[in-house]
């Protein structure tokens, strides 16, 4: 917050304690806290239009949520993957990767 950085926190929608986790993120100061299944919705895209372009996405889950994340990233943004809890591959559509000039980085923790 001191640096003026806004966060969009996306949690797994299938998590049994999702609502509790969203409240915790609110209490910790998360700016926007949503379930992953809402990320690809029209309402979410409309809300994100009101914000500056997203330049950094952090992923520890993998799978479809990263595909949805890539679609809302700003041009020239970077997605960093540091885990794969879903055990599903990260898939970025070619048109999103090339037209938005996204960078993908990864490391294992």
What do these coordinates show?
- It is a single chain.
- This protein is of the alpha/beta class and 109 residues long.
- The protein contains 4 helices and 5 strands; from the N terminus they run βαβαβαβαβ.
- Strand 3, helix 3 (64-72) and strand 4 (73-81) form a beta-alpha-beta unit.
- The mean pLDDT is 91.
Quick take:
30% of the residues lie in helices and 25% in strands. With 109 residues, it is an alpha/beta fold.
Please state the CA-atom Rg, rounded to the nearest Å: 14 Å
| Average pLDDT for all residues | 91
Low-confidence stretches: none
Helix content: 25-40%
Number of distinct beta strands: 5
Number of helices: 4
Q: Determine the strand fraction and express it as a percent band.
A: 15-25%
Which overall shape is indicated by the principal axes computed on the Cα atoms?
A: globular
Multimeric state: single chain
Strand order of the largest sheet: 3-4-5
* Biggest sheet character: 3 strands, parallel
- Structural category: alpha/beta
Distance N to C terminus: 25 Å
Order of helices and strands: EHEHEHEHE
């Amino acid at each position: 917050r001191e640096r003026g950085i806004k966060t969009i926190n996306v949690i797994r929608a299938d998590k049994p304690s999702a609502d509790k986790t969203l409240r915790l993120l609110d209490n910790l100061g998360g700016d926007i806290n949503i379930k992953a299944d809402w990320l690809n919705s029209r309402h979410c895209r409309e809300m994100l239009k009101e914000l500056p372009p997203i330049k950094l996405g952090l992923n520890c889950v993998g799978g479809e949520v990263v595909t949805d994340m890539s679609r809302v990233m700003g041009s020239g943004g970077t997605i960093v993957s540091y885990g794969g809890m879903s055990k599903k591959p990260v898939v970025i559509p070619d048109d999103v990767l090339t037209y938005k000039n996204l960078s993908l980085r990864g490391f294992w923790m």
